[in-house]
Amino acid sequence: MAEFLRINVLPVDQPLGRFYAGVVSAKSIVRICKFDFRRIVDRGGYKDFLGIQRPLKDKRIKEISKYINTVDACFPTSVVISIDPRCAKIVDSGQGLLIELSEHNDVETGLIIPFGDIATIIDGQHRLKPFDDESVSDMDLVVTMFIAIDDATEAQLFSKVNLAQTKVNRSLAYDLFSLEKSDSPEKLAHEIVVALDSMDESPFKGRIKRLGVATEGRFGETLSQSTMVQGILPYLTKDPIKDRDNAKRYGFFPDLSQKDANKLFLRQFMKDKEDEKILAILINYFGAIAERWPEAWYSTGRGKILSRTNGFIAFMRFFRHLFGHISQSPRVVKQSEFFAHFSKIDWEDDYFNTENFKPGSSGSSQLYRDLMDTLP
């Protein structure tokens, strides 16, 4: 029996032409769409370029799959698809327009367009692909449907939709976690960073770009909010989406294996709602760094890396190892305890420069390795 899909739609007229907006279950869209990736095909001696979409990224699909099954999953923006006109019929139902979709089977020419190839995806392939998995819950999506547009127009739409999008500043995204009512690792990390930026006893006071850009009227900001949040998160959670969803659904964060608990050594404080202890430990740790190398820490000149991204990332990676060397149990390690280790390192302040540690991840990794060599 032939498959059909009927969708209530509204017509939208714009300079490019008419398209239709409707609401369809995600799994229904996946059933009619093919994923048309940009690729090169050998046509007997010459190369043909087909498709418009970027290849799917497995990591992103897994992240979206997790998000779909959370209690507050939401995709408010529309998926954009292009429908073959031979498979679509516009019908006036008397209560509005319907699009009826079915496979095309031309007996005279023998041309068959199966139900699964009725449409191609112009925008939204990563949002749709997870719904291929039976374990992923279905949901309604807003869909923008173009009918009878050519490949060039599809490609133009894909380019304009994607090139026109402004990537959200990650620092701003983390800042918005402060508006959440329930707990989450991201919200806690954000609140800690805000406190580090504002407290007099913090070595980071007035030095953090809260929204990822320089704050008007302040000077000497060397680190973005997102860099700091991302440095703290790995010690609170191994799955921020799952932890946030658990907190919303059940009001607590699940226990971890002993191996994971050793890596996420700040997590127990979060579970016990002892956020102030995490803040105190970080102030003590970086306070010891600033105490040991004050000129390098407070310098904002070019080529000084200690209190910039590379220095922060390297010392945050080293943080867990030094903490574990000092204490085998979760507690507030004193600044003097951290300083006792740093005082034994014979590096001078001018050691932290871009000649020794190149800009980018290679420089940060080199500093981390140097720090690891200081452990007994």
What does this structure look like?
By secondary structure, the chain is an alpha+beta fold. The chain has an 8-stranded mixed sheet with strand order 3-11-6-12-2-1-8-7. A two-stranded antiparallel sheet has the order 4-5. Strands 9-10 form a two-stranded antiparallel ribbon. It has helices at 26-32, 58-68, 125-128, 151-164, 170-175, 185-198, 225-232, 240-250, 258-263, 267-271, 275-292, 294-298, 309-326, 335-342, 361-372, and strands at 4-14, 17-25, 33-34, 39-42, 47-50, 79-83, 88-92, 97-102, 104-105, 112-113, 119-123, 140-147, 208-209, 223-224. The N and C termini lie far apart (73 Å). The longest helix is centred in the C-terminal third of the chain and has 18 residues, at 275-292. Helix content is 39%, strand content 18%. The relative contact order is 0.09.
The total count of helices amounts to: 15
Shape from CA axes? elongated
Cα end-to-end separation: 73 Å
Order of helices and strands: EEHEEEHEEEEEEHEHHHEEHHHHHHHHH
Summarize the structure.
By secondary structure, this protein is α+β, with helices and mostly antiparallel strands. 39% of the residues lie in helices and 18% in strands. Helix 6 (185-198) packs across helix 7.
